[in-house]
Each structure stands twice: as structure tokens, then as C-alpha cells.
Amino acid sequence: MTDILERAKTQVLDGGIGLSYDELVEVLQLPEDQIPELLELAHAVRMKHCGPEVEVEGIISLKTGGCPEDCHFCSQSGQFTSPVRSVWLDIPQLVKAAEETAATGATEFCIVAAVRGPDERLMTQVREGIKAIQEAVDINVACSLGMLTQEQVDDLAAMGVHRYNHNLEAAKSYFPQVVTTHSYEERWATCEMVREAGMELCCGGLVGMGESLEQRAELASQLAELDPHEVPLNFLNPRPGTPFGDLPIMSSQDALRTIAAFRLAMPRTILRYAGGRELTLGDLGTRDGLLGGINAVIVGNYLTTLGRDADEDLALLADLKMPIRELAKTL
Amino acid sequence: MTTYCAHCGQPGEARDHTVCDVQLVMEPPRFCTSCQRRMKVQVTPRGWSAACVEHGVLTS
């Protein structure tokens, strides 16, 4: 075992303390022949500090497209020539999507809107939507509605929102290359307000956007400092018409190193497979990641693209003998 | 009659759409194949719908 893996075993597996930035850089630089050993260690850390259960979530876009922000990876920005058109989902369709998600065994249903932050119209739609879901389906409701004011944070908490997603997206040093219409600090401020209001914080990012290995380690360290309940890990799926539309797809080996590094940075977090895994990792890589630190998945489709068939993911979890976390244990 | 690629919106005969066809395995259609209009697309956890104002709604 290499020096960094020996140290990680002692510090993270035995001690439950995440690796530092410098140590994460070392992990991300491990040669390809060390990846199986790295994944094995990350899996052992996950099993010891989180257990074998996997948290399953479905997501839905309540308001698609037409976003005023310029997140360079996103096909929903109104500033790019993406083919994605603006569309709103009505409440009966929202409830139907929640019911379909719950039928997979999922315990989380996340309502997402492509906005800078919610206006009164969106808050009203969210309020009515959550009420309708709560009356019809036994599932935790999460939201991702952009940057919030304190009043909106308090409103969402009062509506019974279980978890709020607001990603850092990228390392602080790379953020200006990804977004120019708002700042990293504004994102951080929303995350802190969410947690202080008593909602669970879901905060992750994307990799494969042209950042360096050091910036990947920086993102993991900054997320560890924020200490969210859940970290969704996205791999760039280059979208036509966006500034990142011509970037190459991240290699599966780098994706697996990143998964393991994030687990070694945050031994106790819910580390979720989010967008782009199908493209970056394929079926075999998806399995490797679940045996390399991942303990949560988004099942079914994403916001504007399609995912693996939910039944395939559920069959994979059964094959790996990883039980789906039940609702009672998440409350 | 001209038909259009559901992924890129270009005429079917204008170029090779093999890559578009591969993309459409993991993406809903974005353009109406009859009139080239951008469609209003709603993706849900287990399906999608794509609406053309002229030619109606497609579903998964």
C-alpha cells in the first residue's frame, strides 16, 4: 500500500477524519494501477462510517429553461443558444412524478427550478406543490431553487422542506471560469442560511469542467469545510450551445479517483451519484463507484437529460446487496 | 417533404446524424421532425413529453 493510502487508512477509516487538501491532491494523482486499492479503501470508509444502505432520490424540473444566470455547464441558461425551451410543470404532473419516484423506493423527491432565486410566483407554486405531494405521497420533499433570502429560507422550512440543494459547483479558485453572474460567496451564504434554519443541506458540484486536479481537491476540501448532509457529485455532460459544450468527457479513471477522494474527504456524508455518470462511467463504472464510496443515487431521469432505467439501478443495488434506505430512517 | 433531426434540428439529408441518433438514446427530442420548431420538453423521473405547437405532443 502506498504512503497516502496507508495514511488514509489510519486517519479516515480508523479515525473518521477526512483527508486534507494536500492529501487529496496525492489521492487524485495515484497511478491507474492503484485505483482498485483506492476504491477498496473508500468503500471500506463508506461501509464503516455510513453503512451499507443507499439513499435513493428522484428529481424533477418545476421550471425549466430561461434562467438569467450563466453557469457555463447548464443548458437551461437563457444566455446561451441551447435548444432547451422554457416550460413550467403543473401541480398534478408534479404529484404524479412524486408518486412515480416513491414507487421506486426512493425517500427523497427534489423539486428544482432554473432560476437565480425564487420569485413570489415560484414560491407559491412550490408551496402548493409541496402541500399536494404531502397529501398524496409518503416521501421527503427537497428543493433546489437557487439563492435564497432569509425570509425564503424560513418559508421553505415552514413548508416542511426536508433538504435544500445548492451546489458550490466548482472550487472557489475556478468558480469565476464557470459562473460570472453571481459569486461563490453568495452560494456559500445561502448554504449557511439553509443549515441554520434546520433544513438538511445538500451541496456538491461538478467535475470535468476543465478544472485542474488541484482544483478538484480544493472543491472536496471546501465542501468538507461546509460539511453538508449530502454531496451530489456531477460529471460534466457537455451540452450543445453552452460554453462547455465542446469539452471532452472526463475519463472514467479520473471519475473513479474523484469519487474515492470525495469519500476520503468526507467519510460520513451522503455521497450521491448525480448527473453525467451514465456518460462518464457507463454500467461497469457505475458499479465500481458504488463499490468506491458512493452511497446514494438519483434514479431515473435528470432535469433535461435521461438517466439509466430506474429498474436497472435498483437491480444493481440488489445485486450488490446494498439495501435502499427506508423513509423512517431518514426522518 | 423535408424532415428534421430531433436532436440538432438540421434537415435529415443535410449531414450525417449518426451522433445525434446516439445522443437521442439519453436525451429527449428537442426539435419537431416535421417543422423544425424547438419543442417544449418536460422530463420527469420516468419519462418525458415534447410539445410542438403545430404538430402536437410526443411522449416517451
UniProtKB/TrEMBL annotation, chain A:
For whether the record's keyword set contains rRNA-binding, the answer is no
Q: Does the keyword Cell inner membrane apply?
A: no
Entry cofactors:
[2Fe-2S] cluster; [4Fe-4S] cluster
The Gene Ontology biological process terms listed for this entry are: biotin biosynthetic process
UniProt pathway annotation: Cofactor biosynthesis; biotin biosynthesis; biotin from 7,8-diaminononanoate: step 2/2
Broad EC category:
transferase
Q: Name one GO molecular function term.
A: 2 iron, 2 sulfur cluster binding
Q: Which Gene3D superfamilies match?
A: Aldolase class I
Q: Please report the stretch or stretches of sequence annotated as the Radical SAM core domain.
A: 52-277
State the similarity comment.
Answer: Belongs to the radical SAM superfamily. Biotin synthase family.
Q: Mind telling me what this protein is named?
A: biotin synthase
Please give the organism: freshwater metagenome
TrEMBL record, chain B:
The residues covered by the Biotin synthase auxiliary protein C-terminal domain are 39-60
Organism for this UniProt entry:
freshwater metagenome
Protein's UniProt keywords contain Iron: yes
Q: Which UniProt keywords apply?
A: Iron, Metal-binding
Name of the protein described by the UniProt record: Unannotated protein
Check the record and name the Pfam families matching this protein.
Answer: BsaP (PF26519)
